[in-house]
Design a protein that fits this description.
Blueprint: E1 4-7, E2 10-11, H1 17-28, E3 35-42, E4 47-54, H2 56-73, E5 89-98, H3 102-119, E6 124-128, H4 139-143, H5 146-153, E7 175-179, E8 184-190, H6 195-205, E9 215-222, E10 225-232, H7 240-253, E11 258-264
Parallel strand pairs: 5-7, 6-7
Antiparallel strand pairs: 1-4, 1-5, 2-4, 2-5, 3-4, 8-10, 8-11, 9-10
Subcellular location: Cytoplasm
Enzyme class: transferase
GO molecular function: folic acid binding; glutamate formimidoyltransferase activity
Length: 297
């Protein structure tokens, strides 16, 4: 059985299709053993999330090529978007899929991080399971204040000192490279343009504010709709259905209906068990969003 690791790089470009294609081509054209199974771009976030699977060696090489190309194409000094970010190649997580372990992903993340820091002169913060410094384990902590704050504070304390790379930031910014388990990026759009309600609901449901366990959430304005943007860090403990139901309840308390929901990237088949997409207003779902449908052998 082949070894498979998933990589879900987040690049700070969601408006220029030529740049998005250039980065994608750099990642997959040199190695047909790497599969690009999804690209999700958002103009308001000004961000693209790629989903790739491949062997540990091939996925490591593809990730480096993507970071290198993004650094050459994206200037953070000119970047405007609603999603927090610190770099052109903002977040590069590695996730064990099949016949691989978290230890395999930690090694890949650290190897990529070291190479990015040394060869591309980009500051690298190792996060998640790959973290070396406890201050870097939480991705939200690394991105607090975003590129603009990090540019001022880099190297001033341990929390703002990269694990690899220089103690200064160029136009490509910095990169957070890590290892983690599968998460589900799931967004719910409210039928209102009032961002205030998305922020209130996001605060109510995120774990750090006393809400649902294993849920991270932000309120944003996307496509002229208030959006509750969520990461479900453990879908077995807090499911898509659970967060949808809770967001609906909170929205109804304010007299607001839900407009539709959105899945970013792919998810395991198990995560959709017992869920009918129409019940959660997920209208663009298809079978190619199931990770296992891309496995071979």
């Amino acid at each position: 059985m082949e070894k498979l690791i998933e990589c879900v790089p987040n690049f700070s470009e969601g408006t220029n299709p030529n740049i998005i294609k250039t980065i994608a081509d750099a990642m997959i054209n040199a190695d047909d053993s790497v599969k690009m199974i999804n690209i999700h771009s958002d103009k308001d976030h000004n961000r693209s999330v790629f989903t790739l699977i491949g062997s540990p060696q091939s996925i490591q090489a593809a990730a480096f090529r993507g970071i290198e190309k993004a650094a050459a194409c994206i200037n953070l000094n000119n970047h405007i978007g609603t999603h927090p970010r610190i770099g052109a190649a903002d977040v590069i997580p590695f996730i064990p899929l099949r016949n691989t372990s978290m230890e395999d992903c930690i090694k890949v993340a650290r190897d990529v991080g070291k190479r990015v820091g040394e060869e591309l002169n980009i500051p690298v913060f190792l996060y998640g399971q790959a973290a070396i410094c406890q201050d870097h384990s939480n991705l939200s902590d690394i991105r607090r204040g975003e590129y603009e704050k990090l540019r001022l504070l880099i190297g001033t304390d341990r929390a703002h000192t990269p694990d690899y790379g220089p103690l200064y930031i160029g136009q490509a910014g910095a990169s957070a490279i890590g290892a983690r388990d599968i998460l589900i990026a799931f967004n719910i759009y409210l039928d209102t343009t009032d961002l205030h309600y998305a922020k209130i609901i996001a605060k109510s449901i995120r774990e750090s504010s006393g809400g649902l366990p294993y849920v991270k959430a932000l309120g944003m304005l996307v496509n002229n709709k208030a959006q509750v943007s969520m990461n479900l860090m453990n879908y077995r403990k807090t499911s898509i259905q659970t967060v949808f139901t809770r967001v609906k309840e909170l929205a109804e308390d304010y007299g607001i209906r839900l407009h539709h929901s959105e899945l970013v990237g792919c998810l395991p088949l198990e995560a959709m068990d017992g869920i009918h997409t129409e019940d959660i207003l997920l209208f663009d779902f298809s079978q190619d969003r199931i990770l296992e449908n891309h496995f071979s052998g």
